[in-house]
Amino acid sequence: MNAKQLLGAISAMIIKTGAAVVIIIVVFRLAVSAYDFGYQVFADLPVSEGEGRIVSVVVTEGKSSRELARELEEKGLINNAYVFFIQEQLSDDYKGKIQPGTYELSTAMNSEQMLEVLCHVEEEE
């Protein structure tokens, strides 16, 4: 094997190794992002602990759950509008049942508690 062939083989190995490293890093970052998103959806943690602050939210007729989620995020009631939207879509009890009205929501409420209020669902004893 001459020097030119050896240099070509080493270069090809370096390129393949570099590509493998890049692929591993991308897959790892995607996995971490997917885990983080799933945790947010299923952990359902409130924005703040304790008393929280009360925020008034007006739901008008025809307001989509995506629009409502964006408004809740802008008002600081939730951390991620997309997560709230997914939680509403995955819920058998609340999907498509948000009622128009004016609501007092707290930053200490989790998404399920907010959906319960927004959908006028009474808790069973």
The CATH class label of the largest domain is: Alpha Beta
If classified by CATH, what would the architecture of the largest domain be? Answer: 2-Layer Sandwich
Please state how the strands of the largest beta sheet are arranged side by side: 1-2
- Report on the biggest sheet: 2 strands, antiparallel
Pick out the low-confidence regions: none
How confident is the prediction overall: mean pLDDT? Answer: 91
SSE string: HEHHEH
Shape: rod-shaped
Gyration radius over CA: 24 Å
Number of strands: 2
Number of domains: 2
Rounded to the nearest angstrom, the distance between the terminal CA atoms is 82 Å
Briefly note the CATH topology name of the largest domain. Dna Ligase, domain 1
Percentage beta strand: 5-15%
What's the short version?
The protein has 125 residues and is mostly helical. It has four helices and two strands, in the order H-E-H-H-E-H.
Question: Which characteristics define this entry?
Answer:
125 residues, mainly alpha, Dna Ligase, domain 1
Description of the structure:
The protein is mainly alpha-helical and 125 residues long. It folds into two domains: 43 residues; 65 residues, Endolytic murein transglycosylase (Dna Ligase, domain 1), CATH 3.30.1490.480. Helix content is 55%, strand content 10%. The chain contains four helices and two strands; from the N terminus they run αβααβα. A two-stranded antiparallel sheet has the order 1-2. The radius of gyration is 24 Å and the shape is rod-shaped. The termini are far apart. The mean pLDDT is 91.
